[in-house]
Amino acid sequence: MKKQRFSVVAAMAVAGMLVMGSAHAGATFDAVKKKGFLQCGVTTGLPGFSAPDEKGNWTGIDVDTCRAVAAAMFGDAKKVKFTPLNAKERFTALQSGEIDMLSRNTTWTFTRDTSLGLNFAGVNYYDGQGFMVSKKLGVKSALELSGAAICIQAGTTTELNLADYFRANKMEYTAITYDTSEETIKGFEAGRCDVLTSDQSQLYALRVKLPKPDDAVVLPEVISKEPLGPVVRQGDDEWFNVVRWALFAQLNAEELGVSSKNVDQMLKSNDPGIKRLLGVEGGFGKFIGVDDKWAYSIIKQVGNYGEMFERNVGQGSPLKISRGLNALWNKGGIQYAPPVR
């Protein structure tokens, strides 16, 4: 009997420690809360993902990912400031604490996830590397590119994928490297290279910057897996949880049919999953240190994942990218989030 009583007491103590742990905020969480805004690292300008307009207003999927986190933290998606970074600067800026999170079309890889002191919090866009060429070249396949001069952005996984692909297919190429994506498209436009290679989404985004976008074509080959998503520093689980579940909230909202247009009406829904997501019941906010209406604020102010995708890169945008792999798991894609329960 004493042994059984000891086991119960021990179990209760462990449970108490877990609850206390969940209520304790980490350094980044505390710092963001104290200063009253989120500092988010983005690209120097990539249409559809993160780009400023002539008035300095930022838009894009990666920008909206930052705003979703701000909405979860403060109930206000506008409480975010953006730091434009090139590929070489992005990880140092996060490691040094210059930014609170990185949301900059960044590929999740083994090395980046294990050796840089960083954690990827999810995937907001599944992508793959491709090639863009001028139509006048008459090239129909990447396998016809042996001997080509190829524009490429330095400090990216693109460089390694390109080398692997050409070596595997016994082809040669000349790399023309640039520090930014803007420089790569200018080099392509000026004829300094025959081909521009990058993530396919980036190719479509860069193509719209050409004087005559229809004169360039993206070849059919996809030579890599490029899961892109937000990144935080390791060692701060509380902050990691907020960033991860901000994205998961958007995915769950789309699956449940909750959008920015109907979220107020959905507060009256009898669906248990919707009630938990919107904070009507369950009290889940305390587990990540935020208000119970954290997901409601995200959906109301930023939208669900489908809304975010369509306005930035989907058929209603200049990029006109199909959902593809980024459709929900029950709609032919692989986007999927754990439930709020």
Automatic annotation (TrEMBL):
Gene Ontology biological process terms, A to Z: amino acid transport
Transmembrane segments: none
Entry keywords, A to Z: Signal, Transport
Domain Solute-binding protein family 3/N-terminal per the UniProt entry, residue ranges: 37-266
Gene3D superfamilies: Periplasmic binding protein-like II
InterPro entries attached to this UniProt entry: Bact_solute-bind_prot3, Solute-binding_3/MltF_N
Signal sequence, renumbered to the chain: 1-25
Family classification: Belongs to the bacterial solute-binding protein 3 family.
Protein name, UniProt field: Amino acid ABC transporter substrate-binding protein
Organism, scientific name: Nitrogeniibacter mangrovi
